[in-house]
Amino acid sequence: RLWSKLLTRGVLTALLALTAFLFSLNSQANQGAAITAAFTVLVVSQIAFAFQCRSTPDEGFFRKYLTNKLLLGLAFLVIALQVSIIYFPPISRAFRMESLLLKDWIPILVAFVVSSLPLDELFETRVVEEDQAAEEESNGMVAEAASVGPNEELG
């Protein structure tokens, strides 16, 4: 079960990074900027994943983001560091990053939103509901079998 969640997240992140790479490559025709956009998608998707790992039963979607002040502060710090790696020339040269245009941030923001969606919870809810339905059906069959006498047939 854990492996399937990790595989799903990994494939989703890879597709989002590839999308950002191709979008930036088409908008700037600069491979360095495309690599920077893909790397930034990896960073923001990991931030979103950190929030997804936080267990908040029966709480609202945004509560997961707003109640843990330490995680929220660290997420802003990571984003600030990533932006400085992209736009502060001495650091960007050290990391071989290229500046991104404003439109290059569109797939990065989309990647963050998609990575933030509670996909695991949606799949888990569906599985739990299916398990509950199967259990109720099983209990109904047991109750029906118990109500039938030894010489009677099930209807």
Q: Specify the biggest β-sheet.
A: none
Number of strands: 0
Give the count of helical stretches: 7
Series of secondary-structure elements, N-terminal to C-terminal:
HHHHHHH
Helix content: over 70%
Outline the structure in words.
The structure is a single chain. The protein is an all-alpha fold. Helix content is 77%, strand content 0%. α1 runs antiparallel to α2, α1 runs antiparallel to α6 and α2 runs parallel beside α6.
List keywords for this structure.
155 residues, mainly alpha, 77% helix, 0% strand
Task: Summarize it.
The protein is an all-alpha fold and 155 residues long.
Helix and strand arrangement:
Elements: H1 2-28, H2 31-52, H3 63-66, H4 69-87, H5 89-95, H6 105-116, H7 119-147
Helix pairs in contact: 1-2, 1-6, 2-4, 2-6, 4-5
